Input
Amino acid sequence: MSTVKHAVIAAAGMGTRLGLGAPKCLMELGGIPLIAHLLGNLEKVEDVRVITGFLENEVMETISKIRKDVIFVRNPAYRSTTTLTSYMMGAAHLHSPCLFMDADIYFNPSGFADFINACEKSDEPLLAITRTKTRDAVYVDLDEARRIISFSRDHVTGMEWANLAFLSPGDLQDGPGAVFEQLATRLPIAALEIDSYEIDCPEDVELAMTAYQRINRDY
Amino acid sequence: MTTCYVFDLDGTLTKQELLPLVATTLDLEEEIRVLTRLTISGQIPFRESFRLRFAILKAAPVDLVQKAIANVDLDNTILDFIRARTERCFVITGNLDAWIEPILPRLGCKVFTSTSLREGTHVKDLQYIMHKADKVQALRSKFKRIVAVGDGNNDIPMFEQADIGIAYGGIHPAATGLMQISDYVINESNSLCRLLNTL
Output
């Protein structure tokens, strides 16, 4: 049993498909920026590193008001690099396992807490999956032990990769391609189902909003 | 001994800017305020700004300037980091040796400053105006990797020569120009030292 010490959040992207003209992590759900919801899930994690790029000053300013001790890692080449590069930059010089996640996701807080608890029970890699709901889903196939055995963009399944992972920095190597393509070379990897809402297009905003209202009514 | 750490002084290691403290003591607040505004907005380069600062302050006895800043609050978290590796930490400040003399022993490591010629109770002339890149270059022969921490536009040359630049906004956001050439931006000393410890 060990505590999760590091969290790396990729927040450098432009969110072109949403057409906001602002970073997606600053989009509000219930009057609260997406990134604030996310940081709320990470209150117990000591070391939070956010990779910034597009409109970095706005992102830094918003985050600093919520949590002053965040370490911002600048990715000035955000237009020509992928999330994988941002993750590598965020975890540079770290040696113990980190939580890696995208900033444009609304997570059901109880599921996120379960994920952290599961990470603390083992230092093995763990990937979050969620019920398929996004248009650009990366679908996963699971074996009987609920481990991911394949990723696919075409082979539709009921579960998709949730862009939340617990990995050792050494599990990722910089290069072309997406994070899941690199993870695909290391399968099988244990998976845990969570309730999350990635926001890429206007339909996703609707889904996240509905989920947010449902979750906060339940509490 | 492969990595060294270089720190700016004003606003990075000190929890208050030194110049306004001096200005208040000497009743030169308006003059210094105008100069500071022009410097921060990048309208006059550090060198010229420092010459003007010297022209304004040289009429004051050195001990009066020293007294104004002698008890300035320092960031103890960063000082602890420095004290744990004094041989590999350096302070590089544009401030003048004579004015900041009382603070130097509190910093716990070697300090590079602008230098002056003194005559009795006053500073007579400027001898050397700090160009931070020079000092970083000089450290190159001894250290393989140089990590720089600063908050202002006059730290830009220091960042350009360093391997890793950390824009630090401990008491106010770091200068925009500095942020744009930095690798990391941090606003709190615990997380700054957490990062420094992992580099």
User: Anything to note?
Assistant: The longest helix of chain B spans residues 29-40.
